[in-house]
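User: Batch of two.

Assistant: Item 1 of 2:
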Amino acid sequence: QVQLVESGGGLVQAGGSLRLSCTHSGTFTSIATMGWHRQVPGKQRELVAAITLGRNTIADSVKGRFTISRDNAKNTVYLLMNSLIPEDTAIYYCNIRGNRGTVQYDYWGQGTQVTVSS
């Protein structure tokens, strides 16, 4: 059984910073991707940042402001968000795509709310 537990969301003023954390339990044979997505009501979930086979992907809308990193020893992926703007307000979801044995799975966290006030 794999679970993803997110933390670090909250309310912040524009220009502020937050760091999201996502820690997974359970074990993987291999992890292909660890990443963060976000969703606002009425819109599709969008990729914010991901680490895929060691390469980082950052959405254009957050490039230069957000940084993704991982700590393998802690089974944790982080999203450091600087210079936050109201448009960053969303529910942020952690995602891990990995293999358990020969089967690949997608796991999602429960989501953490980030609200940026102007």
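Item 2 of 2:
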Amino acid sequence: QVRLVESGGGLVQPGGSLRLSCAASGFTFSNYAMNWYRQAPGKERELVAAMSSTGGSTHYADSVKGRFTISRDNAKNTVYLQMNSLKSEDTAVYYCRARNYDYDYWGQGTQVTVSS
């Protein structure tokens, strides 16, 4: 059974940091590109960060460049999103996504709230 389980969300003050994790199981993790998306209330889901299956290529949304870092540990079947200098506009549900040419899997999401 394929599972993507996000964790690490929560309430943080502006300027703070959080590290999200997404633990994968049920598929060959190292064969999949991994992405982080987010969806704020009333807005469309947007791509935040992406990493190739080998980790050799990354992409970030302009709004998070220089503040967020995506990484993966293929030995642990886990992808991470380190979020620094958080802003109120980063408040959203964060989802991880695993995809290759044949398959596309999503996690259930974890809430991140940036507020004083």
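The mean pLDDT is 97.
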